[in-house]
Specification:
Number of strands: 14
Radius of gyration: 24 Å
Bound molecules: adenosine-5'-diphosphate, magnesium ion
Order of helices and strands: EEEHEEHEHHHEHEHEEHEHEEHEH
Largest sheet: 6 strands, mixed
Strand order of the largest sheet: 6-7-8-3-9-10
Helix content: 25-40%
Distance between the termini: 39 Å
Strand content: 25-35%
CATH architecture of the largest domain: 3-Layer(aba) Sandwich
CATH superfamily of the largest domain: P-loop containing nucleotide triphosphate hydrolases
Mean pLDDT: 92
Structural class: alpha/beta
């Protein structure tokens, strides 16, 4: 059994009447990238602040590296690296000086610190910008600097709160690859995001948050197997009759059919060869069709089926 790095039990945090965390339970194991996925306002940052003992909570317990987390537990804090949601660097220090400053809070020995700073600059792809002041950096580069400052001291536990919000695709990829590299080198990572694609891409286990509660957790495969949707198939087909639509709905594993503007949308529960069965029906009935799309369920489908709401941002996906 892998060691538990973070254990949260029945955490309750209220801001006056608002219950931001409602009996939240989580456990993060050594060596994993653990994803906290949830829409804005679901309690991700509040959970992080409780883990770090930056916020007092009303009920429950938080253990980090097996010890109860308290504001003065510096032995544990020393082993944690954080990049907060709001970038916090010094405007009057250069990129390199910023990283050196934050690293210096943990590492006094000069040569070791120099090496750590160099590693952090290389890891975040900031070599060309080392002499730049933060004010001159793009949003993506600034985020990368924020992360480099948080992890330069090579902590065992890294917590990143929405590190890719509003960054360009190049910086986003760099950040995701960087996180995976730190993880391969041995760090346990807690990663919060409201972008399901990212969480799917890099996280081993995922907890889905909604209104301060963990509504589901597990690997992405486990999460997807919890729901009814197994596969979504879309077929461009002109002139389907209502009878044909009904018959398709009666094919094996098909539990939902929609037909609008020449696009047939079918949801299938588990099972294999769904597409083949459907196309066989098309062949037999001599129905012409255009493009065919088959998609596996996403974490959005999991969220949608459990909560009845979309996890995705209502417009455009990315902020
Ligand atoms: P997330 O990080 O998932 O977006 P937060 O943890 O920031 O969510 O917020 C959870 C809920 O708590 C939200 O409804 C938010 O408005 C509320 N909240 C967060 N911080 C405060 C605060 N300092 N005072 C009052 N309400 C807060
Ligand atoms: Mg947040």
């Amino acid at each position: 059994m892998a060691e538990k790095v973070v254990e949260i039990e029945n955490l309750v945090k209220r801001y006056r009447e608002l219950v931001a965390l409602d009996h939240l339970c989580l456990s993060v194991e050594e060596g994993e990238i653990f994803g906290l996925l949830g829409p804005n306002g679901s309690g991700k940052t509040t959970a992080i602040n409780c883990i770090l003992s930056l916020l007092k909570f009303d009920k429950g317990s938080v253990r980090v590296f097996g010890e109860e987390m308290r504001p003065d537990n510096y032995r544990v804090k020393r082993q944690i690296g954080v990049a907060m949601q709001n970038v916090a660097v010094f405007g009057e220090l250069t990129v390199q000086e910023n990283i050196d400053y934050f690293c210096g809070l943990y590492i006094r020995e000069k040569e070791l610190r120099r090496q750590c700073v160099e590693d952090a600059i290389a890891f975040s792809g900031l070599s060309e910008f080392r002499k730049f002041y933060p004010g001159k950096l793009s949003g993506g580069l600034l985020r990368r600097l924020n992360i480099a400052c948080g992890v330069a001291h090579k902590p065992k536990l890294i917590i990143l709160d929405e590190p890719t919000v509003a960054v360009d695709p190049q910086s986003r990829n760099r950040i995701l690859e960087g996180i995976q590299k730190l993880n391969r080198e041995g760090a346990t990572v807690i990663y919060t995001s409201h972008y399901m694609e990212e969480v799917e891409q890099i996280c081993g286990r995922i907890a889905i948050l909604d209104k301060g509660r963990c509504i589901a957790s597990g690997t992405k495969e486990e999460l997807k197997s919890m729901i009814k949707t197994g596969e979504k198939i879309r077929i461009e087909a002109e002139g389907l009759t209502p009878v044909q639509e009904k018959e398709i709905g009666e094919l094996r594993h098909v539990y939902q059919v929609g037909y609008q503007d020449g696009m047939l949308e079918i949801r299938c529960s588990g099972g294999k060869h769904n597409l083949a069965h459907i196309l066989e029906y098309f062949g037999k009935n001599e129905i012409g069709f255009g493009r065919v799309y088959a998609e596996q369920p996403t974490l959005n489908d999991v969220f949608l089926e459990i909560t009845g709401k979309e996890l995705r941002d209502p417009v455009g996906g990315q902020q």
